Each structure stands twice: as structure tokens, then as C-alpha cells.
Amino acid sequence: MTQDFYEKLIITIVDKGLLTLLIAIAAFSLNKILEKYKSKQALENELIKQKQVFGNELAKQRDTIRLQFLERQLSEFYWPIYLRLQKDNAVWRRILDRKKDDELLRQVGTEIEKSYILPNHDEIIKIIESKIHLAKADDKLLDALLRYMRHIAVYKSMRVAGIFDKDPLDLQEPWPRDFFPAIEERIKQLQHQYDNLLAVADDA
Questions:
Q1: pTM value?
Q2: Closest by alpha carbon to 125, among 84, 162, 161, 169?
Q3: Closest CA to 132 of 149, 155, 113, 108
Q4: Closest Cα to residue 92, out of 181, 175, 9, 183?
Q5: Model confidence over 120-171: pLDDT tens digits?
């Protein structure tokens, strides 16, 4: 065999070896790139999943806070006022008897006003003054609340001053007729929101 043949053989072996080495390097590099891509995809998928879980937890927490606030609005402000106004509605006609000729009716009417109606209004005023932050009242309801408080202030002052034959209407402080319907409407709205949120919480 000639030297030429050996040189060609060596060149061929070296070329094949280099080719094999290059293929191996390329395969290794491609494998690393694929592994990095898979790791990146897995990380992105995990982040998306965590964001969804976090978003769901945040939504649940927000609903829970909203539910608790609605419960306080209803139980500490609106329902107590509404029930006391209903108590007034049940007996207010009896206080008109204090202006009748019948002595017994006058005494009963006066006593109902003194022992029942006025203390009932005192309780409503206390609720408004101490829990107004729960009302989240719009301008219309706030105006009705203020007119109610003004009416009661004049009403009580007249009685303390010994004026029993006149009412706040005589001093241009009429009963705010829209007060009770406004409270009733607000209760319906808030109770509806509360019930809906409660149903969502139960389903979760």
C-alpha cells in the first residue's frame, strides 16, 4: 500500500470522526435547547396556574369581605331601623287620640307617645348616629335621613318644652314620607345582593 493510500485513509477516518463529533455536539446542543424550552414552558404553565389559583382566592376573599359588610349593613343599620319604623306604623294612629274629647283616649294617646313612640325614635336616632358609616347612602336617602332627624329633634323639643297640642308639622317640619319607603327599598337591594353572594359562596 502506498503512502498516498494511508493519507487518504487517515483523512477519511478523521473526516468521519469530525462529522460524528459535530453530529454529537449538535445533538447535545439541540437536546439542551429542548430541555430549556420544556423547563421554560413548565415554569410558564405553573405561573399561569398559580395566577389562576391566586385570582380565584382573591375573588373569594373579596366576596367574603363584601358578604360580611352587607351582613353588617343589614343587621346593624337597615333592619333595626326598618323594624322600629314598622313598630311606629303599628301604633301611630293611637297617638292621634290625645287630641280627642274622650279623656281616656287622650290619656292613652299621650302615654303611647311618651312611653312608646318617642323612645322608639330615640333608638332609631342612636342607630343612625353610631352606624351611619354602614349606610352607604345615596344623596336621596341621606336627605331623607337628615329630614327625619330634624323632624324628631323638633318633635322631642316641643314635648320637652311642654307643647303637647301641636306637632312638628306646625313648625314646618313635616314627617318625611319618603323615609320609610327609601329604607324598605334599600333593604330589598342589599338583601338581594347578600342572598346572591351567599349562594355563590355555598356553590364554591
A1: 0.70
A2: 84
A3: 149
A4: 175
A5: 999 999 999 999 999 999 999 999 999 999 999 999 999 999 998 888 999 9
